[in-house]
Structures are given as C-alpha cells and as structure tokens.
Design a protein that fits this description.
4-stranded antiparallel sheet; single chain; elongated; protein kinase A binding
Length: 140
C-alpha cells in the first residue's frame, strides 16, 4: 500500500461528486483509481528529483498507472504502480520492457532511495530541516 496524505475513497458522501460521472463507479466500492494514487506519489517526492509526472502515453487503469521519473543524476525511468507497489519497467519515459524483471518496492521512497544517491541526499536534508523546524517550534 502506497503512503499518501489522503485516501480519495474517504470522501464524505455530501461532497457533490455524486453528479460527476467519473466518481459514480466508486460509490460503495473499494476500488482505487491508480491515476489518483500516482498523482499523490508524484506530489510527494517531486522536490527531490529532476522531473516526475504520470505518463499520458501509457494507459492508466483502476489497477495500474505509469510514472516517468528523471533522477538528479539525469537517469530516466518508467515506473509501474500497482497494488503490489512500484517497480521500474523501463529505462526511459513512456516505455515498458517485458524482459525487465525488477523487484517491487512498497513505497516510492525506497524505490528512489535504491536508484538515486542524490535523491537520498535531498530527501534526507529536507527531513533534517523539517525536524529542526519542529524542534524550534517546541522550544518556543
């Protein structure tokens, strides 16, 4: 299960989405739209990579979405996002290579951590700054 700040399925019933046909299919179901999940993943870590966006070329579905990411080292990857997690499916944007047998990662953090030392450094520094800010808040 991916870490996200919110779960789109936890919307209260009176949000006005009932009229919107995109949301009708979700009423009373557990189905998650992977595109929404993919957008949340991108928003979470975009600050720590050179470029990252949900693929507009590869098909998104309820059970799969594809994310293009370029690390700060300028390496490009296409990631597949499913209920099993995230994995690299190609070494370029908007591609999939069926011969590639890469492991699934439970979170985008662990996947990027394994691909990009620069991501690890930027993410670690951001975490440190956040902790220092929290420490200052509690001291005042």
């Amino acid at each position: 299960r991916m870490e996200t700040d919110y779960n789109p399925m936890e919307l209260p019933n009176n949000t006005g989405f009932e009229e919107d046909s995109d949301y009708k299919d979700f009423e009373g179901t557990d189905v998650k739209d992977m595109r929404l999940e993919a957008e949340a993943v991108v928003n979470d870590v975009l600050f720590a990579v050179s470029n990252m966006f949900v693929s507009k070329t590869l098909p998104c579905a309820e059970d799969v979405a594809y994310i293009n990411v370029e690390t700060r080292e300028r390496n490009r990857y296409c990631l597949e996002l499913t209920e099993a997690g995230l994995r690299v499916v190609a070494y370029d944007f908007d591609q999939t290579d069926d011969r590639l047998q890469t492991p699934y990662h439970e979170t985008v953090y662990s996947l990027l951590d394994s691909l990009s030392p620069a991501y690890r450094e930027v993410f670690g520094n951001a975490l440190l700054q956040r902790l220092e800010a929290l420490e200052k808040e509690t001291q005042s």
